[in-house]
Design brief:
By secondary structure, this protein is an alpha/beta fold. It contains two helices and 20 strands.
């Protein structure tokens, strides 16, 4: 057997507590991913190499055309006495999440952007067309308003995003949809060798 063939099967979809991941047929799941529990991945979304999406204590949703780039970890927070609804992680449509990000119990609205290595903590919200810069840490309960960019550790408002920056973000989403299809096709081709 060709070693590349084995790679095409090297991801895990694990049911837990009676809930199994639900992956749309057009989504791309790369080798090395671990997707556990109550996770939903929408149409044309892409979950890249070696990501972990662990919905063991609440749910995770990844919307249509959103991409979760290599090495990212996504989790959620269970219900607690002071917060009985807990913190699911809800990622809208057309969201860009850079390599090695950590998203925990937060909401990323449609067209949000999380930069490389950034951290988003419980109860945070990144509104539509807003950006958390690379390496930034958005501390618990913070909200980035639409069209704002925040940066730093802890993250704070830096500036408003220009229309050109928003267009770049949209182009990035479209590029990842196409790239996901290329990778899926290449992996299918390897498995037929």
């Amino acid at each position: 057997m060709n070693p590349m063939t084995e790679m095409t099967q090297d991801f895990s979809l694990i049911a837990l507590n009676g809930k199994a991941p639900r992956i749309h047929s057009s989504a791309f799941i790369a080798p090395g991913c671990r997707i556990i529990g109550d996770v939903e991945v929408g149409p044309d979304a892409s979950i890249w190499y070696n990501c972990v999406l662990r919905a063991d204590v609440h749910r995770i949703v990844v919307g249509a055309r959103s991409n979760v780039q290599d090495g990212t970890v996504i989790h959620c927070e269970s219900p607690k006495p002071k917060r009985p609804e807990g913190f699911p992680t809800i990622i809208g449509d057309d969201v860009l999440i850079g390599h090695m990000a950590m998203i925990h119990g937060s909401i990323l609205e449609d067209r949000a952007f999380v930069g490389l290595g950034a951290i988003v903590m419980d109860g945070c919200r990144i509104e539509s067309d807003a950006m958390l810069a690379a390496g930034a840490m958005l501390t618990q309960g913070k909200v980035i308003a639409s069209r704002q960019m925040w940066m730093g550790r802890p993250a704070a408002y830096a500036r408003d995003l220009t229309e050109a920056a928003l267009e770049d973000m949209r182009a990035g989403v479209a590029g990842y949809v196409i790239n996901g299809r290329f990778h899926a096709e290449a992996l299918r081709g390897q498995s037929q060798d």
